[in-house]
Every structure is written in C-alpha cells, then in structure tokens.
Design brief:
mainly alpha, about 220 residues, two-stranded antiparallel ribbon, 8 helices
Length: about 220
C-alpha cells in the first residue's frame, strides 16, 4: 500500500514492534491534499480521482494523515455529516470521556456514530481497521437518513461473495455488508474484504466521499 504523502511536517512515523503511532501538526487541508500534492506525492493511483473530488468538496479535514485514528475518523465523519445535512451537530457533555473532549468526538458520540472503549475513555489515538470504520460509517448513514430522509445505502447487507467473510466480527457484519452492497466499501481484492486490516486515510476519505456523492445524486444536488 502506498503512503498517502511524504511530508515530515505533517506526520512523523514512530515505528515499534507492536504498532504504528503518529504525531501531528495542524496544517490546512489545502497543504495536505491540494491538486498539486495529489499529482506530485505518493498517493495510490486508484485513490487519486476520488481524493481530488473529496478535496474539491471540502471533505478532507486538517488532521488526516496516513492511517486513520479514532479521532481522525470522527473528524472526517462529522465534517461529512454536517455538510450533507447542512446542520451543525450538537455535542455530548464535555465530561463524557476522561481522555478527550474534542468537539468532533463529542458530536459523533452524541449522534450515535462512535462509542467509547470502556471506563469513560474514547482512546482517540488508537488506529482503526476497516470493519470499525465501516460500522461508524453505517451509523453515520443512519444519522444522515434520520436528519434528511435520504438513505444512501438502501441495499441490504451482503458479504457472502467474499472468501474472508468469516473474519468479519459479528458486530461489524451489518456495517461492512451494507457498505459493500451499496458500493461504498470495495474489497481489497475481488474476493476479500480484509476487515481487520488497518484503515488508511486514502480508504477513509474515499468511503466518506462515496457517501457524499451518493447523497448528492439521490438528493438531486
């Protein structure tokens, strides 16, 4: 998998034997995913078109960097939901979590899009995988449907065509299946979903863009 970009001011990778961790500086989406960067930097060929369209639509948020953390995806999905509903989401109480109080996390939690990890913690810096992202997007679609009356994922969940369907956690079957059946989440190959693979920023951005694009089409915008 290609890295999305090579920018030391944006993302410093710290390698360990257990996981990848990242530290971030806030820089504008225009600097991260501008058309020039999309053309010049190491973005996967399959992602370039939709990332360019995502940038144009204002769907890329300032902390997006390589692999999606729980905080980064909350930021992406709240931005998406507010754009399509044209409403600012109400946040949960500032004391909901003991390890973070960022408004985007509290908004996503209040809308039922994200949940905590137990003991009043959100664990904002933990990386996410594909089935976790799918479940959050499915819940965001439910929120958007409730707010607008437009369901961008009407087809029933379906994962039977994938050879690794048994690797999908029981709690994620509906989310992964709905996104797959509605062409929001593609497999990592024609026959595999790779539900436990880490979700890259390329993938997270593209999944959000496809929700946005289908909403625009269905709403006639």
């Amino acid at each position: 998998m290609k890295k999305i970009f090579i920018m030391t001011l944006a993302c410093v990778m710290l390698l360990s034997t257990q996981a990848l961790a990242f530290s971030f500086e806030q820089i504008s989406p225009e600097e991260l995913f501008s058309p020039e960067v999309i053309q010049q930097e190491d973005i996967s060929d399959w992602a370039k078109k939709e990332i360019a369209l995502s940038w144009q639509a204002g769907l890329i948020t300032e902390h997006t960097c390589t692999y999606m953390t729980r905080f980064q995806f909350a930021e992406l999905i709240v931005n998406l939901a507010e754009k399509v509903t044209q409403k600012e989401m109400a946040p949960a109480d500032a004391n909901t979590f003991t390890d973070c109080s960022d408004p985007v996390i509290l908004k996503a939690y209040a809308a039922g899009i994200v949940s905590g990890v137990g003991n009043s913690r959100f664990d904002p810096n933990a990386n996410t995988n594909r089935e976790q992202i799918a479940s959050m997007i499915a819940r965001a679609i439910d929120y958007i449907t409730q707010e607008t009356g437009i369901n961008v994922a009407p087809a029933a969940a379906q994962i039977d065509a994938f050879s690794d369907k048994d690797q999908v956690s029981s709690w994620a079957v509906d989310g992964v299946g709905r996104l797959a059946a509605n062409n929001i989440m593609s497999g990592t190959s024609a026959t595999t979903l790779s539900p436990k693979n880490s979700c890259t920023a390329e993938q997270g951005i593209l999944f959000c863009y496809r929700v946005y694009d289908q909403f625009q089409t269905m709403s006639g915008k």
